[in-house]
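#struct-pred
JK: can someone run the complex with s-citryldethia Coenzyme A? inputs below
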Amino acid sequence: MTELKAQLTVDGVDKTIELPVYSGTEGPMVVDVRGLTAQGLFTYDPGFMSTASCESKITYIDGGQGTLLHRGYPIEQLAEHSTYLETCYLLLYGELPSKAEKEAFEATITSHTMVHESIADFYHGFRRDAHPMAIMCGAVGALSAFYHESLNIENEEHRVQTAIKLIAKIPTLAAMCYKFSIGQPFMYPDNSKSYAENFLHMMFGVPCEESNIKPVIARAMDRVFLLHADHEQNASTSTVRLAGSSGANPFACVASGIAALWGPAHGGANEAVLNMLYEIGDVSRIDEYIKRAKDKNDPFRLMGFGHRVYKNFDPRAKVMKQSCDEVLQELGLEDDPLLKIAKRLEQIALEDEYFIEKKLYPNVDFYSGIILKALGIPVEMFTVIFATGRTPGWVAHWHEMISGPYKIGRPRQLYTGYSKRDYVKLEDR
Ligand code: SDX
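RT: done, structure tokens with the ligand placed:
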């Protein structure tokens, strides 16, 4: 990185503070503010709107252009030409695999899809109506109680093995959430199936008959996973990095990422989009909801719209919308009423001054819910699908951080509480 300089003058601080400035290969320059503490100053950035928390080579987003690159490759090209597991390899190792490397990686992932038989006992402790994200927080966190033989995080091979175990096992745990909720037996993975096919087999298969997964459904499922694989320093990935910065067990770190993803402002938005479309119910009621979304006094937000970084179309939303059309057409569901509401809602919002002025465009969650519904995935499982897809991103960022020099993440604050005061005895209060 080339080093430039920034000069900072602060009222009450008698000298100009010089700060290094770095340029990356893409994106804004960054001001290195680490020297401010020595000057008795902190930066202040709630929500980290203007903060680069780390250096990374994995994913680049240009919110103004609507660009998303994974190790330099545009998401549109990966969605068209690649597969989810190949993209997992790319995120983890930094390059597209050769044919032999791809086949070896797929075989390795396939051979790790089973989970320890004791894991099933954790599920039976939940109520049948437990939200599957609650179960996933528990089940993935529970993995930290296994695999003690490969948990020296300073050992690169152990880190890679952990990444592979998580990518391989999370779909199995995810499908087990669904099976538990409907009282059907857990399905073991079928190593003869591709990653997406196997997931659908574990979700919808039953022990008493062969699974018949339509190729169009498996291809759409694979693409949904691929479109969710990574997204720079989003809230859940930043959570995994922060948890990992203490040297915590990586399975527990990913469980913390799942917890962060659950919120409706983040990965929980896909479930919230479907619930919103159901609530709107008919295109005639869209204007009422657009009005509510613009009303400062109404907490209602148009779910699936807006993004901290994208102030243009989320490129994943464009690919998701195209896949949505293809899947629904191939399944003969092109007249899906929710799709009609979604398309009309998008059209109205994109022409509305409020959304234009605030640069609110459809994000990855807007159309994903409609595809997932068409694939037969129940709404409460949508965020679990997002977590499954995002796992390679979480583990790639964790691996990248632990592979280099890192410090425990420990932000400071602007303190506006009481200054020092003496204790008041009970009888004197
Ligand atoms: C994901 O970070 C990532 O990369 C996340 C993600 C990933 O792959 O990891 O891309 C996945 O989380 C996508 C986002 C999914 N969430 C939603 O769809 C929920 C609805 N969207 C919003 O809650 C919101 O847009 C956020 C949370 C996504 C972004 O919020 P910001 O960046 O903090 O922006 P903000 O809340 O400050 O909003 C700016 C203005 C506000 O108005 P003013 O106070 O300036 O007057 O825009 C308004 C907001 O009220 N606004 C909306 C809106 N989103 C923002 N108004 C109505 N509907 C919305 N959806």
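RT: quick notes.
The longest strand covers residues 3-8.
Residues 231, 234, 265-266, 269, 293, 301-309, 358, 360, 363-365 surround s-citryldethia Coenzyme A (CB under 6 Å).
JK: thanks, will look after standup
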